[in-house]
Structures are given as structure tokens and as C-alpha cells.
Specification:
Blueprint (H helix, E strand, L loop, with lengths): L6 E5 L12 E8 L2 E6 L3 E5 H7 L12 E4 L3 E10 L9 E4 L2 E4 L2 H8 L7 E11 L2 H7 L3 E5 L2 H5 L3 H10 L16
Parallel strand pairs: 5-9
Antiparallel strand pairs: 1-2, 1-10, 2-3, 3-9, 4-5, 6-8, 6-9, 7-8
């Protein structure tokens, strides 16, 4: 099995009716036991400042506009922070070159105090797949995959991320069909 760690999953147009519709998912871990990813283009109706206040952390002005993303349908009350700062590696899992994942409250405090990473995103929940489940979905044309790019993760507006990832494959997102099949 080839690992899809540090790859994007691009939801195919026929995937309708749930949180994955129109989603771009970043794969943080993928091995023989399964996969864990974060949806990176679906904002929740909550801002980071609200999460910080719930945790008794004084929010910064910037956090008042920072979106929190719907990371996936699993553990939707747990926060995940994807970031680019190797100084926080002790509390973080390396997910790819220059990309790390943490669930540490200390990271939220650091962000509120402007001591955290300069590039990050916060999600509530994650996407998880049991052993072989993601591979089955890939064989059924549920997803396209491509290597992850940090500029798509951290620099692009949420609504631009899915089409930018699709374009890295040389595909115009408007040309994707909702019809499925096997060649």
C-alpha cells in the first residue's frame, strides 16, 4: 500500500449529501490501520475567538475573524490545529514537509498570545477511515488524489482551495463529471 499521507483528497462531484460534498481533505496519516484527514475548505459558523473564550483563553483581535473549519464527521467537539512551525514539534505530529498537526491547548494559548505559528488552520472534528476503507473509496472513484501543497493549505482563501488542488492535476474543475465509471 502506498501512503497518501501529505496528499489531498478531492471529492468527486457525484459525492453528494454529506460533509464531504465539494470538499478538499488533507491526509495527515495513512497506514495499514486506516487514515486520518482534515477537511480544509468548509467553514463552520464559529470563529476562533469563540473557541478560545470557551477554553478560558483571552482571544486576540485577529481571532475574531479567523474561521474554524469542519474537519470531518468524527469527534466534532475536538479541535485540531494544522500548522507550519517546527518549534512546536514536541506536541505535534509531522504530517509532511513543514506541516504538523496538534490537538494541544497550549498551541491555542500560543496563537492567542501571538507566539504561535505564522501559518495555521483550526478544525473541529476529523475524517477517519478504517483499514482498507479509503482504498475501497478510491477504487470506486469517490476521490481524486494529489500531493499536498502548503500554499493551498495555508495561503489560499477557503473557496479557492478545491479548484487549486484540482488544477495541480491539470484538470479544470468545471470539467469533472458527476458520472462514475471505470476505464
Amino acid at each position: 500500500m502506498d501512503s497518501l499521507r501529505h496528499h489531498f483528497l478531492i471529492a468527486m462531484p457525484h459525492l453528494q449529501g454529506d460533509i464531504f460534498t465539494g470538499s478538499l481533505t488533507y491526509i495527515c496519516e495513512h497506514n495499514e490501520e486506516g487514515a486520518l484527514g482534515l477537511i480544509i475548505n468548509k467553514p463552520l459558523p464559529v470563529k476562533l475567538s469563540e473557541i478560545l473564550l470557551e477554553l478560558d483563553v483571552y482571544p486576540s483581535v485577529e481571532s475574531e475573524t479567523m474561521p474554524v473549519l469542519a474537519g470531518g464527521p468524527v469527534s466534532t467537539n475536538q479541535g485540531f490545529i494544522l500548522h507550519n512551525d517546527p518549534d512546536f514539534i514536541s506536541n505535534s505530529l509531522r504530517t509532511g514537509p513543514g506541516t504538523f498537526l496538534t490537538t494541544s491547548k497550549d498551541m491555542l494559548v500560543s496563537l492567542a498570545e501571538h507566539r504561535g505559528p505564522n501559518k495555521f488552520l483550526v478544525t473541529l472534528g476529523y475524517a477517519g477511515w478504517d483499514a482498507g476503507q479509503l482504498e475501497d473509496e478510491l477504487s470506486n472513484n469517490v476521490w481524486l488524489t494529489c500531493p499536498a501543497h502548503s500554499d493551498i493549505l495555508f495561503d489560499l482563501d477557503l473557496e479557492q482551495r478545491l479548484s487549486a488542488a484540482t488544477r495541480t492535476l491539470g484538470i479544470d474543475p468545471e470539467q469533472l463529471s458527476s458520472e462514475t465509471g471505470h476505464a
